[in-house]
Amino acid sequence: MPNPSRLRLRIITACTGQKRHMPEGSLTQDDFTYLHAPEIFAQRESALATYQLPAAEMYTGQQHVRLMRGIEAAQATFDIDLWIVSAGYGLIHGTREIVPYEMTFQGMKAQEIDAWAAHLNLPQNVQNLLAQPTDLTLILVGKSYLRALGLTDDTDFDSTTVFFTGSEALHSLPTHPKLRAVGLNKSDATRYRCGLVGLKGEIVGKLLIEAANHGTDYLIAATQPDVDLRMFIPEPAPLPPKVHVLSRPERVDFIIKAPPGGWAKPHQSKLRFFIPDWDDHVDPDYDFLTETHAGGKGNRSNQMFAHQMYGQPSYDGLLVSKMVADESKIKRDLLTEIGIHQYLRVPKDFPVMGDCGAFSYLLDDIPPYSSSEILEYYTRLGFTYGVSIDHLLFGAQTEAGMQARYDLTIQNAEDFITEHRKNGLDWTPIGAVQGASPAKYAEAAKKYIKMGYTHLGLGGMVRSKTDYILQVAHAVNDVVPAGTQVHLFGVARVDSLTDFVKAGITSADSASFLRQAWIRFGQNYIGDERLYAAIRIPGGQSKTKRLTDPREVERILALEAAALSGVRGWANRISGLNQAVDAVVAYSELVGLRLTPKLIDEYRLTLDHRPWEQCGCAICKQAGVEVLLFRGNNRNRRRGFHNTYMFYRLMQQILTGEGSLPIPAEWPLKSRSVQLVLPQMETL
Ligand SMILES: [Zn+2]
Hints:
By secondary structure, the chain is α/β, with parallel strands linked by helices. Helix content is 42%, strand content 13%. It binds zinc ion.
């Protein structure tokens, strides 16, 4: 019995040549000429009585099989009424018992189709059926069967009726306000990885499966006018790469190899770039379509660092703060066991700097570590460089407090190098310098040189203006001997790189290009000529946690799916730009993301320019438009890796001069355009 509260769904599908039973003596056109002579026809059928089945079960062609999968999944949710357009029997209900036959409209000439369809009373029966009340009708027919239906502009459609047919047959559909059409072609076959023969069944089957999960609203939304229904149908997960995939954790736990010439690069004689690491890794096999990791949750056992993803680092060294290394007991134990290089999966000769992460104890009166403790830690983990314990002056409340921190930092540097020398340690000590003015920095630097330091690190200027940083650097440079290595902590600004070099800075670190990927809303992706907004499509599941109304949950998930497939459809050149933007905006509004008109314009620009296609980096090549989605670690960090890669290329180009490196010319070279493209960015 139909359930009045459920959506009534009528499905009309063409018969298929493949049948469950295909015995000798199956009915042919000759037999069906007696269709209206019941006695004769019944006699012919009875010879095949052992093969008799309900029509719904008779056909085994791909279109039917795939459609039936969807019907089975959706039967509990909707009242489904299945009809078959049989080239032998005419229009029959799915429950009608039939016997095997060999008969198809395919390959018939137009006039033949018309004549035979008339013999079967097809046009009349189809028109009667379409005029009967239901909530939604889906019709799956190819060109020949569509002709056999004999539809005209006068055909009465009681319900919204969606035709799934070949795109070449679209023009032969009548016009009617309730009629919608999905024209399928080869690109859909590729997209859904299904041959053209079964594609209509595949699309409708998937639609039904999705609708069974998401409910009536989903079906209604998918069949609205001007909506590309394909946006509602998830694409199959990408095929695994044909390369041999190692079993985990070997897949990710490998150490990158230095290029044949070693790590040296021309720009390093001027400035070396270090990147602070906060366990920034991604799953190389992350499945963006199903949002699943290759094995369980994302962690060290299935994720890679940027230098592993690219095979080469986009930096000249890594910087690890003690507080990051101390995050958990498991991590501390692992670091002790394997050392910092193996942990970061870089070879021993790749520079890794350790510092104490002064921000973590900014408000304490004195740093929570002793010099001997820190020396032991750097040695145990095998750092290339170790930074003495500094204390940030601006954490102090008073002038006297600042002076105390200044003096303490200098005292720590003295203890640090004294003990380092006494123990004959083989890594390079860096004296951390703090100061309240350029003169104070210089005064401390002078003392450090006397202590025996060849490497200094200027701290506490992450928030400072570039002019001030340059004053400090110059003041220090004036008092230290030539060849002294000076690291600038937490600052790497594209438009000041050459000025830093002139002021004697020899290395700098910054995570701002990485973190820009998810911190700066609207400027998350560094393109060749400009910054692009990443398109924010937050995970729908997290938005539904507190909801109790299942329809509301369904709505969120349906609009989320539409936003994702809108963007992917545009990226794959299957659906339009407006569709993508509208779907993203609709979902954003639903989940309470307020998008300004300016940001919507930025989204449009991102999609329109297709920067993911222009970037040849390993990450964009593999993940495509997913890199431009603001959604979860595996997309956001990938985008951060890309940004770092872009910055590193630009930095090398700026430092070595135009044309001295094989870098594509599209990068902005002039410092003015660089300033326009990349405004000053700071860590924190
Ligand atoms: Zn890229």
